[in-house]
Amino acid sequence: DFRIQVRDYNTKNGTIKWHSLRRQKR
Amino acid sequence: EWIKFAAACREGEDNSKRNPIAKIHSDCAANQQVTYRISGVGIDQPPYGIFVINQKTGEINITSIVDREVTPFFIIYCRALNSLGQDLEKPLELRVRVLDINDNPPVFSMSTFVGEIEENSNANTLVMVLNATDADEPNNLNSKIAFKIIRQEPSDSPMFIINRYTGEIRTMNNFLDREQYGQYSLAVRGSDRDGGADGMSAECECNIKILDVNDNIPYMELPTQSISIEENSLNSNLLQIRVIDLDEEFSANWMAVIFFISGNEGNWFEIEMNERTNVGTLKVVKPLDFEAMNNLQLSLGVRNKAEFHQSIMSQYKLTATAISVTVLNVVEGSVFRPGSKTFVVNSNMGQNYKIGEYVAWDLDANRPSTTVRYVMGRNPTDLLAIDSKTAIITLRNKVTMEQYKILGGKYQGTILSIDDALQRTCTGTIVINLENGGWKTERPNVNGSTTSAYGLTSGGVTTNGYTTGGGVGTVTFAVGTNGYGVGTGVYQPLRDNVHFGPAGIGLLIMGFLVLGLVPFLLMCCDCGGAPGGGAAFEPVPECSDGAIHSWAVEGAQADPGVLANSAVPCIPVTNANVIEYVDNSGVYTNEYGAREMQDLGGGERTTGFELTDGVKMSGGPEICQEYPGTLRRNSMRECREGGLNMNFMESYFCQKAYAYADEDEGRPSNDCLLIYDIEGAGSPAGSVGCCSFIGEDLDDSFLDTLGPKFKKLADISLGKDVEPFPDSDPSWPPKSTEPVCPPQGTEPTGGGHPPISPRFGTTTVISENTYPSGPGVQHPTPIPDPLGYGNVTVTESYTSSGTLKPSVHIHDNRHASNVVVTERVVGPISGADLQGMLEMPDLRDGSNVIVTERVIAPSSSLPTTLTIPDPRQSSNVVVTERVIQPTSGIVGNLSMHP
């Protein structure tokens, strides 16, 4: 598997969370 | 097309504190060394070095401040390489979006806009359109410019409105009056962030010239209403009539035309207009006759050269201005009427034969003159005699052949009537036709006279100083025969030339005499010469009527007491053509609609947002209903024609997607947007729809969590074959307009017909959100059927817990002009009862779309009722979203029962 994770800046307790890519289909 | 919104950075600030912004990982790293590489714009293409990657860990850092206006987004191509530099994976793309900040103010295309508009234009008439641009992100609040008139000169009352979105300047009312103000200057401010306080602004100036229309009725100003003029005279400046008109000087709206309504039947008068001064000069161009009419009433009217404007057309009434003209009598004396008279003489008529009479006519008394005496004037061959009192003309002698030959068969002489009291003379012409035959050749009996033989008089009447005035004298010479000389003044007896034959000598001398005398006599014949020269040669005029007229040019007798023109039309001081009431409460009150959108790309994200397109529904002052009357109607029409802003919707959901992407996983973001815009305003032809999904990259299972209705729509959107909904109501339209609400919790109509496209010109927006729910979820709240008929109604409420089944109510939309989808998701609220708190307007007359989305969440400030305004009068899109979360502190009228 080859994936990209982006950082979530909105975590309230300062922990770093990573999200896999979301996508939007149009 | 898959669009990925994976990472974001904000322009104009240091994003390095957020590093690493992303990381890539390959499972191949578990059993071999993997080198991660990135490339693309901002990496190995200009601008270089914005992003860097840790080749070993795969962490991607941002290193520089970026400018969205330069690079709106970056695509980072990510690769995983083995130790040989070979790709271990198929490259991935990481999209980094640069979030916009409001770092660009609006810029007007011109510093001063110039326009013009006719006065009296209807309210809401387009004057000009202002144009400004903002370099910030399109379809973003940062670039959304709101225009506002901040100043008007003159500032008496606001006369213009501006459409805050389009920059169209229109008239606020129909009271523009060039005669009051010929030009207006406006200062207009354009502010981004939709005019918000945090926006950036720019200003421009607008100069609006007010064009003239013929909306003022002219009127005349007379120095006097009574004038007099002598009979028989002409006058080139009898009266000056000034015309007052308030319209633009020297224009056709100002120039007047004065015309005769009555009184000038004899065409005695003319009026000449001076277009520089708007003064008319009354002239007498044909002499008046006192004896025929000694007083007349001139009736004058005035209008403009140009047609009256329609605004005053009905007000104009032809108003007559009277001028009394007195004709003054002038002693005219006697004249011969007609000016000549013809008689016939034959050879049978002897001496003293009365051939007729030729009486002068007394013009003042209008009868044969009794005050003149008559004398013969020119009397060729001394043929005639006239009785000085009776004017009876007689033959002196029987006409001889010689006379007949001299006269050539036709006698033409003159008689004079002499008025000793008036010292006037008038001339009449006598013509006698001598009928051929029977003339005798005997020598006529010559009475002793001043002339010899058959001499003749040449203008031979000395008037003894009587004024003859300007007439044209008749000078006639007859050539004598048989040795009879002719002469007047210089007379040469023929007997001095005895050596020549009498006829030859006579002819010779006569020739010289004629040659010498003619120029001399012509010089002496000064028509209208100075009177009083008793011995001067004064020819008698031989005008047709024999009168000697003195055509003087005299000025009008000015009446010092200038009379006011009582017939001046009433000119309104102000334009009283008030046709509608307009609220002038402010200049900046022209917003036809308003939109508000939470900028979800920013740091201050909220979970609720409101989008209003067209009519803003509640609370705020920026609604179309601001203006009554015409303005309001126009505004509403404009709202109605606004249509669906696809760009805005697109941006809206993109940002929404982005917002959800950054949120916790605790909230699955299953958004479905299906937009039908069939040939609507601004719709691309043939567009079918648009469906947006937010979900895991490789997981479309979220579709399964959709309600059947949205799943159906999603299937349509994805191009899957769907089974049509059965025609559940073939007898459409129903006789009853009562809504049909199936029992709660019933299964949707399986395999129902697809959402048939509404009729042309309609727009449908369906929005759905699902949220996690807990135990105790309230059953869906029944919603009154918003449509009576002619529409499609899909009402669905469900929860993603799967324990509740949505209720679906579908109308046949074959006759639809609206599609309304209302969906509610009631979160884990215990004891909530929304019955009665939700109101849905009747949309049967509208062509609208309402998307209502609610999430019940904890809140302590619930409104007492949730009301959806009645959009029947508009055709807009309303998306309302509220977040209400479970709370124990719900107050007010919202009662939630278990």
Q: Strands, helices and their partners?
A:
The complex is a heterodimer of chains A (26) and B (898).
Chain A: E1 2-8, E2 17-20, E3 22-25
Antiparallel strand pairs in A: 1-2
Chain B: E1 2-4, E2 7-10, E3 22-26, E4 35-39, E5 51-53, E6 59-62, E7 73-81, E8 92-99, E9 107-108, E10 112-118, E11 126-129, E12 132-133, E13 146-153, E14 160-162, E15 168-171, E16 183-191, E17 201-211, E18 219-221, E19 226-230, E20 235-244, E21 256-262, E22 269-274, E23 279-284, E24 295-304, H1 310-313, E25 321-328, E26 334-336, E27 340-345, E28 354-357, E29 360-362, E30 367-368, E31 373-376, E32 384-386, E33 392-395, H2 401-407, E34 410-419, E35 424-434, H3 502-524, E36 610-613, H4 629-640, H5 646-661, E37 672-677, E38 691-696, H6 702-705, H7 708-718, E39 763-768, E40 791-797, E41 818-825, E42 838-839, E43 849-858, E44 866-867, E45 877-885
Parallel strand pairs in B: 2-8, 10-17, 19-25, 27-35, 40-41, 41-43, 42-44, 43-45
Antiparallel strand pairs in B: 3-6, 4-7, 5-6, 7-8, 9-12, 11-15, 13-16, 14-15, 16-17, 18-20, 20-23, 21-24, 22-23, 24-25, 26-29, 28-33, 29-30, 31-34, 32-33, 34-35, 36-45, 37-38, 37-39
